[in-house]
Amino acid sequence: MAGYDDRDGKIWMDGTLVDWRDAKVHILTHALHYASSVFEGERCYNGKIFKTTEHSERLLKSGELLDMPIPYTVEQINKAKDEVLAANGLTDAYVRAVAFRGAGDEMGVASLGNPVRLAIACWTWGAYYGDAKMKGAKLDIAKWKRPSPETIPTAAKAAGLYMICTMSKHAAMAKGCSDALFFDYRGYVAEATGANIFFVKDGEVHTPNPDAILNGITRQTVIGMLRAKGITVHERYIMPEELEGFEQCWLTGTAAEVTPVGQIGDYTFEVGALTRDIALEYEALVRA
After folding, report:
1. Is the four-CA dihedral 259, 262, 263, 268 of positive or negative sign?
2. Are 152 and 109 in the same domain?
3. Residues 6+ away with beta carbon under 8 Å from 251
4. Do 79 and 207 fall within a single domain?
5. Phi and psi dihedrals of 248, rounded to 5?
6. Residue 157 annotated among the catalytic residues of the structure
7. How many domains is the chain built from?
8. What's 148's DSSP letter?
9. Which of 157, 169, 201, 229 is catalytic?
C-alpha cells in the first residue's frame, strides 16, 4: 500500500471533504512545534464505529485538558466520521480524528490566537501486532517512565504523551519485540506504548490503577465484560516483581483490540483459556 501521504480517497478537514493528497497544513502549524494536538483512534466494524460517541467525548475532553477547546459538538464529530467512511467506501476501517492548534497569529508557546482545527481520516488496518494476535506478543521493558499527572495531563489522549512511546517501541523492535511495557513514575506497572495491560492469576484478573495512564475505552469495555462473566477484576497498583507470579497476560486498545502477551522481559505467560475467551468475546461484541 502507498505511503500515508500518497493515497486515493478523502479526508475530512474543518468541515469539508478534501482529496487525500491535498490534506495539508502549514509548516508553522503550532502543533508541529509545541505538541498542541489530541487525537482518537477508533475502529469501524460492519459499517459501525465501536463506541463512537465515547471516543468523540474523550476527544473533546482531551482538548479541554490541553486548554484547546475544539469547536465541534459530539454529534458533529460523529457525523463527520460517518461522512469520511462513506466517502472512502469503507465499512471495516481504522478511523483517526486529530484536533490541533493550527498556524495563525502566534508562533510562540502561547497560541490562543491560533485556530483549533479538526481532521478525520480512515483506512483499512489489520491486526496491530500482526501474528502476535494468535501466539502472544513479546514485550521489552522501557527505560522511560510514564509521568506523574502533576507534570502533564495524563488523562488526555495527547500527542506529546507519545514521544517516549515512539522511542520505547523503536528500542523494543530493535530487540525483536512487538512493544514495550512502561512502569510509572512511582515504579508501578503502567501500560504498553499504545495499549493497556491485564494479568491473570488463580482465575482472577489484575490491571493497573489508571491514575497516571489513559483509562482506555477498550480497557473499560473489557473490565465490564469480565465482571459480567462473574470474574473478579482488581484495579490496583502492581509491582514489577509481581510479573513473575502471573499466569496470563493480554493488551487492550482500539488498535490492539485484545492481544495476548507471551513474554515481558524475562517473564513468560501462557496464552490461556481466559485470554482466548475474552479476545473472542470482544471480537463478537464489536461486530454485533
Report:
1. positive
2. no
3. 129, 137, 179, 192, 195, 196, 197, 198, 258, 259, 261
4. no
5. -130, 165
6. yes
7. 2
8. P
9. 157
